[in-house]
Amino acid sequence: MFVDRVLSGMRPTGALHLGHYHGVLKNWTKLQHEYECFFFVADWHALTTHYDTPEVIEENVWDMIVDWLAAGVDPSQATLFIQSQLPEHAELHLLLSMITPLGWLERVPTYKDQQEKLAEKDLSTYGFLGYPLLQSADILIYRANLVPVGEDQVPHIEFTREIARRFNHIYGREPGFEEKAEAAIKKLGSKRSRHYVELRTRYQEQGDHDALEAARALIEEAQNLSMGDRERLFGYIEGGGKMILSEPRALLTEASRMPGLDGQKMSKSYNNTISLREDTDSVVKKIRTMPTDPARVRRTDPGDPEKCPVWQLHQVYSNDSMRQWVQEGCRSAGIGCLECKQPVIDAVLDEQRPMRERAEEYLRDPTLVKNIIADGAEKARALAQDTMRDVREAMGLRYG
Ligand code: TRP
Ligand code: SF4
After folding, report:
1. What is the tens place of the pLDDT at every residue in 283-336?
2. Counted domains in the chain
3. pLDDT digits (tens, 9 = 90+) for 4-48
4. Is the pLDDT of residue 253 over 90?
5. CA–CA separation, 30 and 73 (whole Å)
6. Is the CB of 335 under 6 A from ligand 2?
7. Atom 8 (ligand 2): residue with closest C-alpha?
8. Distance from Cα 159 to the centre of ligand 1, integer Å
9. How far is ligand 1, taken at its centre, from the CA of residue 138, in Å?
10. Best exposed site among 60, 258, 334, 368 by fewest CB in 10 Å?
11. Are residues 25 and 106 in the same domain?
12. Range of 284's domain?
């Protein structure tokens, strides 16, 4: 049976905070039960922007993996690894670079955006320009079809699809492809093969994307097809060659706007974060000293939750009756701000407790983490090598 394969990466450029938990990790812990999942530390991607401070990356890699595990990413469900331990990614990046038009890279919106945003860094490097292509290699090497990412990363997935299509178009024409594809159609059985031919014609003559999807689904469902035939049939729908690299699609992560301590989005650059496993005292202190509605100078002054960052945290953590208590108590000066903050403090600590507990074991025995990563690398390598064999062969690099 065809199993959806999910792949996602995270750059180790700083300690993870509750924004990452709500925005990314909670989603990963859900996906790991639904799909075959690969999650990796994108340390080479981190180097594209932090090439002059490699110590930052080094420091954060293991901490970040502990954070993942603490958040509930389960190494018996998902495969976890570190990008730089799989040099196959670099090889694929290099080979794909041969067919990547410069203009495609220059037009990826994050290229100029990030250069402007990180103006203090010199990002006019070859490595940074190639960032999306390295990401494509990460994805294509596992033939992952689903990539959970935020909105900002969607252009990178689109770019990856274009690279895969271009690669297949250039290198997917094995000798006798048509004959082999026609023979593969016969193996579908008479009803299915008739349906396949109809859908293919509909797609090729009318550009009907539903037909394309339906034909793909039909192949996915078909039993007894070899991997090669399956790929030929995928490729044949579009008329091209054999599908050596498969096009992924973005699994858009719902934007979660986790508010920070000052009411802006929680982000390292705003200095308003609570880290994932921050110690209890520090969490209490940070929330207790959070700014509130500036109109509430004295305890007896009524306030407006809409003007208060604490209210935003209640929207994340509190149920309806608690929210009503805040609304009424604040507007009537019936409750004080510290009183109002206490349930938020409790909720954050409750959320962090299992994370702290899970992390403890790994911090006590770091070899556990090393072993998880070594196992992950081994599993990843088997798939990566498989793809690289096909890619090298397609590009004429199989000697002897
Ligand atoms: N560029 C991604 C980010 O900044 C990280 C990343 C690298 C990634 N390679 C990937 C995400 C492959 C998904 C798939 O968030
Ligand atoms: Fe903010 Fe609560 Fe104080 Fe109102 S009572 S200003 S919502 S902390």
Report:
1. 999 999 999 999 999 999 999 999 999 999 999 999 999 999 999 999 999 999
2. 3
3. 999 999 999 988 999 999 999 999 999 999 999 999 999 999 999
4. no
5. 9
6. yes
7. 337
8. 13
9. 8
10. 334
11. yes
12. 278-363
